[in-house]
Specification:
Elements lengths: L3 E6 L4 H16 L3 E3 L1 H6 L7 E6 L1 H10 L7 E5 L9 E2 L3 H9 L4 E5 L2 E6 L7 E5 L2 E6 L6 E7 L2 E8 L1 E5 L7 H4 L12 E6 L9 E3 L5 E5 L7 E5 L3 E5 L4 E6 L4 E5 L5 H9 L14
Parallel strand pairs: 1-2, 1-3, 3-4, 4-5
Antiparallel strand pairs: 6-19, 7-8, 7-18, 9-12, 9-16, 10-11, 10-15, 12-13, 13-14, 15-18, 16-17
Helix pairs in contact: 1-4
């Protein structure tokens, strides 16, 4: 059986194209077949063992969108700035391919989000999904959007704001983090709701359970509509009177992990956190 590996690159970076050529050459040397995005378009039913992504987190999100509905794991080789989802840096391409050929990796499953946007005067909601986050953002820069937020079909608070981010633990280091939300370890089965620049005495980040339903209503009195972004890639418009429901997704994204170090190491490395003074060692509780 042919071992097909999809290679997905950042579309405009020459370094990504050069790295893709190296990956393809080394895959063939290991008896594996490189597959391009054009091959996927021509034969959408092709079986894939793995996806190797050359780029930053945005390229990894695009890869996940491309193979959604499959159980194919993704491994990212970082060509971006932070590359939080990436597993390796570009100078370790040969190492990644050899480990992939030997199937020497773990597969880590991450939760996703499903979103339904119910708009006034429409009988059927618009649907979307996200790996990192679903953001509700004001459509006009000079105005706040008026929202009511609720958890598990109970109202919680009402305020004007620039927006609201609902995120997975994977997305807790992305937009939600920039908006003041906590970092959540990826093995925590939870979801986040983080208001953005809210005018309210109670507009703190929330961490809710995996079976909760987060909701944002765009109040009819709002002077501006909202725009819903799924991972910053897929847009749904939401006029006043709309309701946005977000729950844990029906599908998970699978990431191939070659490095078995704990998430703490990734956090320190990607954010270049100072750890001088940490003595280490194991303690008995």
């Amino acid at each position: 059986m042919t071992r097909n590996v999809l290679i997905l690159t950042h579309p405009t970076r020459p370094a990504a194209q050069r790295a893709a050529e190296q990956v393809a050459t080394e895959l063939r040397a290991h008896g594996m077949a490189p597959v391009t995005e054009e091959d996927m378009t021509a034969a959408p039913g092709i079986d894939l063992e793995l996806v190797i992504v050359l780029g930053g987190d945005g390229t990894i999100l695009r890869a996940a969108e491309l193979v959604r509905g499959r159980e194919t794991p993704l491994v990212g080789i970082n060509l971006g700035h932070v590359g939080f989802l990436a597993e390796s840096e570009v100078d370790r391409v040969s190492h990644v391919v050899s480990r992939a050929a030997a199937r020497d990796y773990l597969v880590e499953e991450r939760i996703t989000l499903d979103v339904a946007v119910t708009r006034p005067d429409e009988s059927e909601p618009a649907h979307g999904w996200a790996i990192n986050d679903v953001s509700v953002e004001k459509a006009e820069r000079e105005r706040m959007v008026e929202v009511a937020i609720g958890i598990d079909d109970r109202g919680l608070s009402t305020f004007g704001c620039d927006g609201v981010v609902m995120a997975t633990p994977t997305g807790s280091t992305a937009y939600a983090f920039s908006a003041g939300g906590p970092v959540v370890w990826p093995d925590v089965d939870a979801m986040l709701l983080v208001p953005i620049s809210a005018h309210s005495l109670f507009a703190r980040p929330l961490v809710v359970g995996p079976n909760s339903r987060m909701a944002v209503e765009i109040l009819s009195r709002s002077f501006t509509s909202a725009v819903i972004w799924c991972d910053g890639r897929r847009r749904i418009d939401a006029p006043p009177g709309s309701r946005i429901d977000v729950v844990r997704g029906s599908e998970r994204v699978r990431l191939a992990r070659f490095n078995r170090a704990p998430f703490t190491d990734r956090l320190v490395g990607k954010f270049n956190l100072p750890v001088a003074g940490w003595r280490g060692g194991e303690e008995t509780l």
